[in-house]
């Protein structure tokens, strides 16, 4: 719907874009679409767009915002029929020497071309691309190359042939920046070419770029080769792209080899299963082995890619052989490589099934769990133990993995100990109460005396989890006597941890049992010689007050708090007062 021009809005816009204060102009450009909407479609075309030409010579940050805002104006100037009016200012911005402005202008042109009717795409947009490609300065050519796939898509036959000739010429351009732009854009160009055009025109260009004297051009070209392989189809990809990729794997440039590793799985997906087995597996092994004494970054990428790669292999023996290759990465000298492998290796278990997991993967898991240099390696495996547990039997898990988990609960790195602790309730649920009583409970209770506060605090939570699994009767019989003993321990951190565990268990025991069994453990420490313990007594009572069931238990707690409110330690007096205030509102 056409709208009448709004003179007030136009005057306001003119004042702002001509303001000497750059921030005012920036604010104005950010709201161009709102001004255009207020003006109406006709006035936006006849009055607003000509004014925008004044901003084409403005400072870079204004031009950057203008390039972005122009891409939003299509609907405001009348939609598809008038979208081509936005080409001239964007074409000018696409020739900027500022890379950011140029890229944003190209992005906005990509939006505008999709809005145009087919006739304008073939005429006006293709015409703009031709002008950009024949520009006298490299920024113009770069933008033209970035939009060239649209030119090939909408051009007439003779124009299309000219564009194909431009591609060949640009691959030999004296300026590396032109060849670099072509190496980036060649994959999008391949997407709009016919198979024969790709083979006869684009593959020689790709070969030219991959053998370029500039490393950055070679790197970008090999990255694009994966997309071209997908565009060709499996048969032609194997015939034309595989030899190029194979040569690149052996490149002297580590950056080229790095991109080969990054795109390895994507490249595999362009080939059929036979080629992957016969050609790509040897290349993977070659990359792993040849990088052993070279770049750890490449081995790290290969480790991350390995789980997706192995998922493409359907033959068991082939998968087994690949794991044998990966074994070298589990003892790699670089902790980053071992970290990368540990982040994916547990994903292999569902693919391998019980028997092969025990044979091929468990030794890798054990080796990674034994990594003392990089604790993140151990943490990755521990955090994913459930994935292993779901694949192999509980008997196998107990025999092969459990001893290592118990060993790690005493590891020197506290975060490793904490991660191993977290898995104990899961194990306990599967192993049963007899095993916990004989082997696990003493270990869990020993954490209450750990030298790391976080471990001691979490130990109470682990005991609560066990009480939830095996029931209150079991906890009353097995845990409470040991907590009572710890409450009298000569080392005060055991006494403090016992208080923390009592509070945790109160969330399971319920009000009556808390009053009869847990409250006495707290009250017996009211006269402890260590002020921090007396402080924790008050803190524990503060937690229990809301759940104590009757006046008798409440009175016991109140008496202790009243006494501690006169304590010689100021922090004890304060928290005792806070608890007594809670009584007043209870």
Topology:
Blueprint lengths: L6 H11 L4 H9 L1 H8 L1 H12 L7 H11 L16 H7 L5 H17 L2 H16 L4 H9 L1 H7 L2 H14 L5 H15 L4 H16 L4 H18 L1 H16 L4 H9 L1 H5 L4 H18 L5 H16 L4 H15 L4 H8 L5 H22 L5 H9 L1 H5 L4 H7 L1 H7 L5 H9 L1 H8 L1 H14 L6 H18 L1 H7 L1 H7 L5 H18 L1 H13 L7 H14 L6 H14 L5 H16 L1
Helix pairs in contact: 2-5, 3-4, 5-7, 6-7, 8-9, 8-10, 9-12, 10-11, 10-12, 12-13, 12-14, 13-14, 13-15, 14-15, 14-16, 16-19, 18-20, 19-20, 19-21, 20-22, 21-23, 23-27, 27-30, 28-29, 28-30, 30-31, 30-33, 33-34, 33-35, 34-35, 34-36, 35-37, 36-37
How does this structure look, described?
The chain has 37 helices and no strands. It is mainly alpha-helical and 586 residues long. It is flat, with a radius of gyration of 35 Å. It starts with 6 loop residues before the first helix and ends with a helix. The model is unreliable at 1-5 (pLDDT under 50).
């Amino acid at each position: 719907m056409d709208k009448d021009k709004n003179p007030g809005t136009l005057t306001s816009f003119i004042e702002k874009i001509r303001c000497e204060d750059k921030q005012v102009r920036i604010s104005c450009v950010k709201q161009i679409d709102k001004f255009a909407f207020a003006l109406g479609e006709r006035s936006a075309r006849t009055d607003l767009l000509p004014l925008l030409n004044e901003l084409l010579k403005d400072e870079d940050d204004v031009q950057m915002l203008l390039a972005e805002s122009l891409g939003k104006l299509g609907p405001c100037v009348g939609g598809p029929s008038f979208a081509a009016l936005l080409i001239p200012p964007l074409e000018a911005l696409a020739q900027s020497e500022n890379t950011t402005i140029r890229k944003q202008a190209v992005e906005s042109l990509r939006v505008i071309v999709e809005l145009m009717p087919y006739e304008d795409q073939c005429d006006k947009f293709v015409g703009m691309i031709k002008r950009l490609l024949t520009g006298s300065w490299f920024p113009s050519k770069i933008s033209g190359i970035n939009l060239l796939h649209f030119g090939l898509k909408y051009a007439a036959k003779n124009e299309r042939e000219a564009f194909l000739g431009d591609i060949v010429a640009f691959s030999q351009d004296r300026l590396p920046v032109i060849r670099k732009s072509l190496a980036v854009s060649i994959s999008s160009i391949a997407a709009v070419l016919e198979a024969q055009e790709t083979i006869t025109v684009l593959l020689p260009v790709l070969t030219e770029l991959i053998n370029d004297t500039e490393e950055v051009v070679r790197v970008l070209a090999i990255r694009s080769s994966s997309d071209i392989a997908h565009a060709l189809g499996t048969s032609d990809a194997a015939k034309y792209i595989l030899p190029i990729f194979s040569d690149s794997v052996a490149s002297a440039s580590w950056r080229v080899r790095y991109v080969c590793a990054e795109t390895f799985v994507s490249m595999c997906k362009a080939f059929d299963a036979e080629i992957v087995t016969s050609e790509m597996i040897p290349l993977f092994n070659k990359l792993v082995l040849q990088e052993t004494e070279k770049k750890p970054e490449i081995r790290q990428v290969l480790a991350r890619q390995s789980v997706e790669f192995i998922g493409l292999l359907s033959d068991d023996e082939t998968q087994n052989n690949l794991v044998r290759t990966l074994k070298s990465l589990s003892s790699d000298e670089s902790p980053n490589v071992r970290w990368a492998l540990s982040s994916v290796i547990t994903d292999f278990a569902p693919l391998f099934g019980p028997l092969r997991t025990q044979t091929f993967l468990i030794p890798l898991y054990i080796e990674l769990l034994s990594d003392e240099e990089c604790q993140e390696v151990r943490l990755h495996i521990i955090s994913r133990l459930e994935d292993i547990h779901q694949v192999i039997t509980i008997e196998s898990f107990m025999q092969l993995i459990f001893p290592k988990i118990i060993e790690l609960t005493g590891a020197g790195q506290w975060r490793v100990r904490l991660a191993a602790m977290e898995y104990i309730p899961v194990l306990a649920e599967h192993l049963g109460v007899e095993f916990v009583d004989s082997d696990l409970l003493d270990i869990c209770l020993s954490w209450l005396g750990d030298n790391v506060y976080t471990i001691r605090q979490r130990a109470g939570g682990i005991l609560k989890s066990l009480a939830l699994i095996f029931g209150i009767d079991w906890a009353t019989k097995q845990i409470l006597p040991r907590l009572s003993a710890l409450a009298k321990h000569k080392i005060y951190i055991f006494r403090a941890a016992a208080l923390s565990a009592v509070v945790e268990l109160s969330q399971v025991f319920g009000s009556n049992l808390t009053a009869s069994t847990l409250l006495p453990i707290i009250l017996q420490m009211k006269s402890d010689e260590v002020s921090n313990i007396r402080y924790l007594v008050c803190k524990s009572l503060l937690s229990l007050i809301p759940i104590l069931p009757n006046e008798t238990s409440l009175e016991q707690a109140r008496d202790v708090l009243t006494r501690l409110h006169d304590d010689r330690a100021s922090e004890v007096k304060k928290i005792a007062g806070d608890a007594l205030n809670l009584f007043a509102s209870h």
